[in-house]
Amino acid sequence: MTEVLRAESLNKFFYGPSDFHVLKDISFSVFKGEFVTIVGKSGSGKSTLLYLLATLDTDYTGEITIYNKNVTGLKQNELAKFRNAHLGFIFQSHYLLPEFTVLQNVMIPALKLKMKSKKTIEKEAWDILKQMEMESFVDHLATSLSGGQQQRVAIARALINNPDIIMADEPTGNLDSVNSSIILNIFKDLSKKGITIIAITHDEDFAAKSNRQLLMIDGSLKQTSIS
Q: I want to staple 100 with a disulfide (CB 3.0 to 4.6 A). Which of 39, 81, 104, 224 is the partner?
């Protein structure tokens, strides 16, 4: 198996009226095509860990290696370039731009990367939306969609730059069971195609159907469970 992400001795502190050790010596690896879920109670450190792995929070000790590149200590412009090229992000709140159409929302990350022509990006965005069964909504404004449809568009947007890894923070948190099942199946299909998924979730059924569960308790990684 090809290792795509490695975390070594990650520690994270919050400083304020009273200091808090939020992540405690976290070490683990994730492999190509794995669908990994990170589970645990609220306040256990799950989302904090994900933001470190996603290079969105750089205030920590330890090291994070992604595709054999040590990303710890890189400058913000280097991290932004690396994220655009290798990582896709999906959040509980989809953050679609309400004044843009579905197609335009999906195209945005690729337009920012400036690696392909607008015509090529438009075609690729259309193709991805077709995979999400959202091609009939390409000209609709994001605000006209249901929550499940909006999340599928958010997934399409995360895929537009052909990421190696998708990071997802509670991707089904606002969805009913039917739409949660749709998102789960999309993730499973993506992992079969070699895309690595790392997702934070409170949804026990969702986590149980991933390849591996990482359990967070009070800032520590206690165990892993293989499904």
A: 104
3-226 maps to CATH 3.40.50.300: yes
Whether the CA torsion 40, 31, 49, 81 is positive or negative: it is negative
Domain regions of the chain by residue span: 3-226
Helix or strand (DSSP H, E) at 6: strand 3-14
Which tens digits make up the pLDDT trace of 80-106?
Answer: 989 988 999 988 777 899 999 999 999
- Candidates 47, 77, 46, 71; CA nearest to 58 is 71
Burial class (CB in 10 A: 0-12, 13-18, 19+), 82: middle
pLDDT in tens, 3-42: 999 999 999 999 878 889 999 999 999 999 999 999 999 8
SS3 208: helix
DSSP of 19-83, one letter per residue? -EEEEEEEEEEEETT-EEEEE--TTSSHHHHHHHHTTS----EEEEEETTEE-TT--HHHHHHHH
Q: Do the beta carbons of residue 65 and residue 71 sit within 8 Å?
A: yes
Q: Which residues contact 25 (CB under 8 A, 6 or more apart)?
A: 9, 10, 11, 62, 220
**β-pairing verdict for 61-66 and 69-70:** antiparallel
Cα(first)–Cα(last) distance of the chain, in Å?
17
Distance, in Å, from the CA atom of 46 to the CA atom of 215, rounded to the nearest integer, reads 9
